[in-house]
Amino acid sequence: MKNIALVVGVSGIAGSNLAKELIAQDWIVYGLARNPKGSIEGVIPVVADLLDTEGLAIALKEIAPTHVFFTTWMRQATEAENIIVNATLVRNLLDTLSPKKCVKHVALVTGLKHYLGPFEAYASSGTLPKTPVREEHPRLDLENFYYAQEDEVYAAAERDGFTWSIHRPHTLIGHAVGNLMNMGITLAVNASICKVEGLPMVWPGSEAQWNGVSDVTDVRILAKQLVWAATTPEAANQAFNVTNGDVFRWKWLWEEIANYFEIPFEGYKGGVRPLETVLLTKEKVWQSIVQQYQLQPNTLSTLVSPWHTDADLGRPIEVFTDMSKSRKLGFTAYKSTKDSFIELFEQLREEKLIS
Questions:
Q1: Nearest to 47 by CA among 1, 9, 85, 20
Q2: Cis-peptide, bond into residue 99, ω within 30° of zero
Q3: CA-wise closest residue to 166 among 139, 132, 129, 126
Q4: Who contacts 5 (Cβ-Cβ below 8 Å, separation ≥6)?
Q5: Are 40 and 46 within 8 A, CB to CB?
Q6: Taking phi first (over 0 means left), then psi (-120 to 50 degrees means alpha), and beta for anything else, what does residue 89 get?
Q7: What is the CA radius of gyration of the chain?
Q8: Interatomic CA distance for residues 28 and 17, integer angstroms
């Protein structure tokens, strides 16, 4: 019998790319989202709101997944609200599936905020990890909805007997439109605007991020690790970091991105210069670019998420990841980070999303 996947958050950057990987590996794939943004060939759509338990039960009535991949979250005003809402999303789904006795494995995608705390709390704890961050680092004494989501998975696994895996990517780089956290498209759109206006691409972040070692996670690498952990007995009931497998410094990569777009750049110059304060004033400029280059008619706010890019690049500490744990167990997928960005930019141009 084929494995049957339920990808929760299939319209997002992680979920959509995971669904494509599962289809390529000949899984039956159901894709759950509140508002599906577009069809993925081979994915069976499931429209449901995880906060609506009655509607969720109806939507999943005829579906019995063997594997659940949870790749979504809902951003709230405070971390306390994030905890309540995002734990509820996981609990409602697993409670709904529990009577079916069909689930063999649940995978949860979180991230490096597990080690750093929520966005507003970066570097505020006295127990931040030494880099590279490792899975064995204890939870911080901070409110964090990732911990609450994990606890929901652990409780349901003990109740229902399935295995689980937790996946902690660094910044995700990949294709998705309308995503809450999308650095790749944000930087591409910003570069397109800089080129039209004849301006340099200005580094928005901190000195620590400019000079320090970093890494990112291509969404296709995350997808491969999710499937690997779900089908590898030795990987059961463990948490894994996941990145491309290389490291870089932003002072090198920033120049490479600027060179791709054939524009000058400015590096760190003594302070943080947030991208959000500049980029979100450029709607008229962006619409003129859309018309001039006959791009898809997206608003600027649909494409970019500068708040997230600023939060990542503005960290006052160096952040990169140890991948030894999954490597020792046999996960060997690798991606050049420069290639991750350039391939994304080429795809965005091909689809007429950027100039």
A1: 9
A2: no
A3: 139
A4: 19, 22, 27, 28, 29, 30, 65, 66, 67, 68, 69
A5: no
A6: alpha
A7: 20
A8: 15
pTM of the model: 0.95
DSSP state of 341: H
Q: Exposed, middle or buried by CB within 10 Å (0-12, 13-18, 19+), for 78?
A: exposed
Cβ proximity of 103 and 165 under 8 Å: no
Domains within the chain, CATH numbers bracketed = 4-169 (3.40.50.720), 178-215+247-319+336-351 (no CATH)
Question: Among all residues, which ones are annotated catalytic?
Answer: 113, 146
Q: Residue 238 has what DSSP assignment? A: E
Tracing tokens 């410094």 back to the chain, one arrives at 249
Beta strand spans in 9-84 (E)? 28-33, 43-47, 67-70
Q: 108: helix, coil or strand?
A: strand
**Amino acid in the structure at residue 132:** P
Q: Give yes or no for a contact between 299 and 353, defined as CB atoms under 8 angstroms apart.
A: no
| Nearest CA-CA partner of 229 in 28, 17, 68 | 68
Residue appearing with tokens 């080129």 = 195
DSSP three-state, residue 142: coil
Could you read off the pLDDT of 272-320 as tens digits, one per residue?
A: 999 999 998 999 999 999 999 999 999 999 999 999 999 999 988 899 9
Q: Could you report how far apart the first and last alpha carbons of the chain are, in Å?
A: 46
- Structure tokens of 79? 């971390």
Residues linked to residue 89 through DSSP beta bridges, in sequence order = none
| Cβ-based neighbours of 277, under 8 Å, separated by 6 or more | none
Say whether the peptide bond before residue 132 is cis (omega within 30 degrees of 0): yes
Quick one: CA torsion of 111, 113, 118, 123, rounded to 10 degrees? -160
| Per-residue pLDDT reduced to its tens digit, 143-170 | 999 999 999 999 999 999 999 999 999 9
